[in-house]
Structures are given as C-alpha cells and as structure tokens.
Design goal:
By secondary structure, the chain is α/β, with parallel strands linked by helices. The protein has two domains: 185 residues, 3-Layer(aba) Sandwich (Rossmann fold), CATH 3.40.50.150; 68 residues, Helicase, Ruva Protein, domain 3. Helix content is 37%, strand content 19%.
C-alpha cells in the first residue's frame, strides 16, 4: 500500500460511485484536454484516461508520479507531470486546442490558493470539477447577507458559475479526513467586462471592503484611503445603506460602488 504524506493533504478517494460521478460532471471530454490536479493513486485518472482525448495529470508526490507513469506507460494520450500546481501554466497545457477541463481532489491546506490559480487562467479553462472541504464549498456558493459570504465568494462568482454537486462522507476516502467534502463545478464565465470593472483593481477593492468583516463597509473603505464624504455619497448613489457591511452587498453592488468611487 502506498504510504500517505499528511503534509501534502493526501486523502485518497476510494468510492467508485463518487469517482464516476466526478468524471461524469465534466461532461463529454472525448475531444478535450483534461487536467487532473493531484491524481494520487490514479482512481479518477483511470476513468478519465478512457474518456478524454488527452489527459494531463499533475502530481507533486515523486513516488506517486512515478507509479502513475508506470501504470500509464504506452498510453500516448496520458501525460504525468511531477510539479507544483501553484506553478503550473494552464494556458500552456492547452497545446493549441480548445479550453481545458480541470478535475481534482484539492488538498485542504492550499485549496484557496489553487482556486485562485485556476481563476487566473479562466480564459484557458472551460470548467473545473473540484472536491473541497464542505465549508469552502459553502463559501464559494454563498449569497449576500449570509455568514459564509466573503472575499472568496465574490472572487469565485466574478470568475465562474458555481454549483455544489454532492457532499461526500469521510468514509469515501482513505485515510478518512475529519471533515466532509463537497464536489463543486465551476463553469468559467468572467463578469468583469459585463460589470465594467478592471479585474486586478476591482479584486483589490473587494479585499479592502472585507478587510475587517465585522466593521461597516464605509469604515473599511475609509481605512483603505477613500475620503469619507466620497464614500457616503457613493453608498447613497448605489443604494447601499450607510451602515451596511460588505457581506450584505452583492458582487454587482460592489462593482457599482467601485465604478462610482473610481470615477
């Protein structure tokens, strides 16, 4: 039995039902390049290798990468890359073909970093089906005014349509984690042009809005350097209550506020 490395967040999916369901959630990939993040022992890799036109498996663990290369030796459509997903150029993996499909059981300790990496390559990715901690999935799909709504929510929903597909019990993994996991489908559909905002500048603005979540939005904006009178006027113009917190304002509302303050 291949040993696990807890520091890499290795909890291998052993449920055959879940493996097939995750692959199904990608849709028809017979003419697509699929990138699998953290294939581990290759459970989902086996399913995808039979379906995808081309499969690129990104595995950081040297022993697991070697095992995968051995298992799929002779399969020209399967490529195993031993590298850090946070340093992966997803655009380069397209190889001149259409947008990528991405799948992966994301390590809990770097889930947000991986998601941000994927969003950074939204133009190169059509959809991603990823398994994350249930609490993270709740944050990705949260609505304004709820406890889970925050920077990650706004970021995800500015880049993609978010769907929670299924929640898996710890018993679906080996070793079993102490938390439940949820499979999320992210269909990339950036909204920056639609909402008239500049991606980098707007996301910096969003982080400022949520800098101290318990404080009022107006206070956070003043702390970020915006003049108090301008903040009051912009909130009123955008129909946002003066006492509102950032967690109560939709992405559209924040975009309108950014446009007004920028102007």
């Amino acid at each position: 039995m291949q040993r696990t490395r807890p520091k890499l967040g290795q909890n291998f999916l052993v449920s055959a039902t879940a493996q097939s369901a995750i692959a199904d959630a990608l849709g028809d990939v017979s003419a697509k390049t699929v990138v699998e993040i953290g294939p581990g022992r290759g459970a989902i890799t086996k399913v995808l290798a039979a379906r995808a036109n081309r499969l690129v498996a990104i595995e950081l663990d040297r022993d697991l990468a070697a095992r995968l290369r051995e298992e799929f030796a002779g399969r020209d459509s399967v490529e195993v890359l031993e590298q850090d997903v946070l340093k992966t150029d997803f655009a380069a993996l397209r190889g001149g073909s259409g947008a990528l499909s991405v799948v992966g059981n994301l390590p809990y300790y770097i889930t947000s970093e991986i998601l941000l990496r994927l969003f950074g390559f939204a133009v190169a990715i059509e959809r991603a089906v990823v398994m994350v901690q249930r609490e993270v999935a709740d944050r990705l799909a949260a609505q304004p005014g709820t406890r889970d709504y925050g920077v990650l929510t706004v970021t995800a929903q500015m880049y993609a349509r978010v769907e929670k597909l299924m929640t898996l019990e710890p018993a679906a993994f080996a070793p079993a984690p102490k938390v439940e996991s949820t499979v999320v489908r992210l269909t990339m559909a950036p909204r920056f042009d639609e909402l008239g905002v500049e991606p980098d500048a707007f996301m910096k603005f969003v982080r400022a809005c949520f800098a101290q979540k318990r404080k009022m939005l107006a206070k956070n904006l003043r702390n970020a350097g915006y003049e108090a009178g301008r903040v009051v006027a912009a909130l009123e113009k955008c129909g946002i209550p003066a006492q509102a917190r950032a967690e109560e304002v939709s992405g559209e509302g924040l975009a309108g506020l950014w446009r007004d303050l920028k102007g």
